[in-house]
Design a protein that fits this description.
With about 110 residues, the chain is mostly beta strands. The chain has strands spanning about 1-5, 10, 20, 30, 35, 40-45, 55-60, 70, 70-75, 80-85, 90-95, 95, 105. The chain is built from no helices and 13 strands. The N and C termini lie close together (about 5 Å).
């Protein structure tokens, strides 16, 4: 079992830029923060890599196989995310800090 990811989870691009998520009207919270689902798209700020390779967004390939929120798989600490440049070229994996310490999924 792995911790679920929320809006409060610290995540970064491989170069140290910070990920942030737009509010999507979530219905489920863990430790006061909205749970992220596999269709969440993150904005990345502070990536030090020069243009055109600067990381600007992050997307996930899959989420939990068993835990859903609104019919969508939730993101777990082991979910694979990819940081992308403005031209959608993969710049490397999302670095994930600690998720929710109280809510776990498979």
């Amino acid at each position: 079992m792995q911790p679920l990811l929320t809006h409060a989870t610290l995540m970064a691009c491989p170069h140290g830029g910070r990920l942030s998520f737009a509010a999507t009207g979530p219905r489920v919270f863990a430790s006061g923060a909205a749970i992220l689902t596999a269709d969440a798209v993150a904005s990345i700020t502070g990536c030090p890599v020069p243009l055109p390779a600067t990381c600007v967004t992050a997307q996930w390939s899959a989420g939990s196989a068993r835990v859903l929120v609104g019919g969508r798989p939730v993101l777990l600490s082991g979910s694979a995310g990819s940081c992308r440049s403005a031209s959608s070229i993969s710049q490397g994996p999302v670095g994930i800090g600690t998720g929710s310490a109280r809510v776990f999924g498979i």
